[in-house]
Amino acid sequence: MSVDKKKLCFVIMGFGEKKDPETNRTIDLDKTYKKIIRPAVESCNYSCVRADEILDSGIIDRSMYALLYSAELVIADISTFNPNAIYELGTRHALKPYSTIIIREDKSKLPFDINHNRILSYNHLGNEISDAEAQKSIRELKSLITNITDNPTTDSPLYSYIPKIQKPILSDEDLQKIIGDLKGKENTIFALTEKAKEYMSEGKFSDAAETWKKLKEKSENEIYYIQQEALCTYKSEQPNKLQALTNALTIIAQINSQTDTETLGITGAINKNLWKSTSEQGFLNTAIDCYKKGWNLYKDYYTGENYAHCLEQKSFLEQDTENKIYYKVEAKNTRQEIIYIVLKSLDDEEPEELKWKYATLSNCYLAIDNADKAKEYEDNFRNQNTEDWEIQTFENSKQDIINPKK
Q1: Residues above pLDDT 70, as percent of the chain
Q2: Which of the four CATH numbers 3.20.20.300, 3.40.50.450, 3.40.30.10, 3.40.50.2300 does domain 7-179 have?
Q3: 275-304, pLDDT tens digit by residue?
Q4: Can you say whether the dihedral through the CA atoms of 318, 319, 323, 329 is positive or negative?
């Protein structure tokens, strides 16, 4: 696909799963791209290119700036306040007076400097976008694209406030030297991400870990790839379970500031499994610290559930009677609070992460001896198009509750 055969839409956004710093919600931005942006853009007869689809011999930045300059249309998704996306949006506003559309998921806050722009909002469920929401958003985005294409008006704050400013000029020849062809080859970041997710859904965690590693090497400082590589490494159990966990611990340690729930959850899981494999209490203590931080900071139900489980493990080791009682009571209270939080979230018009919320409710009810409710939510979990590895993860947690001293 050559850049001069079709009008080009360049998409500014993060990719993969990103944590919103304001709400602590994890947003799968790839779902936005695949279910809303790309279908709308292509139906308006534009070629659609996102930064992770550029193949440029490793020199992605040059092509990105050239595309920000030359693209007939730019769509910027500023959900989760991805710093690169915000910076690239500012660059586009400096380079071109018009033909830039801003979108965001509707629970995120707007930076002051752009809150006067017309912005399309869409509802994201965190790990998915409903079909109804996708179709509505596609219609709205297509309407915006058509209006901008037929009647381009200034949307850049720079050119609005300083109308006599002259935009930079780059010749077509120089532009082609920088961009060349935008090729959808198998080693683009987008294609590799899709392959890694496919391996995970098939339970091929060694292959998935290797693919996430390639992605990490292509995109420095992208913690999502580090998280996924660590997760798949420990789940691969290759070359053996203990070595896989040790390797995963080394990988996740590459993230310097471990304060988000995803990193805390994965680090906790690695240490919890190292405790199970070695019986070394240091790993259990570290797991408790990670899970406790995620639970206390964000009331994240995943880290809370594991925090409760590890507290119970700690109670079996504790010699002091008062401490033993404390660990058991804290575990029970945590589970009861999780049940309250998750049940309340199910009242939302379109609840997020239903699959794992049902799994969490099932395990929490099982732990407090409510077998009927545990069975009800386990059935709900299994009816959510669960993959084999997700069922196995649930079963492992369930068996930990049934046989806590194993």
Answers
A1: 89
A2: 3.40.50.450
A3: 999 999 999 999 999 999 999 988 889 899
A4: positive
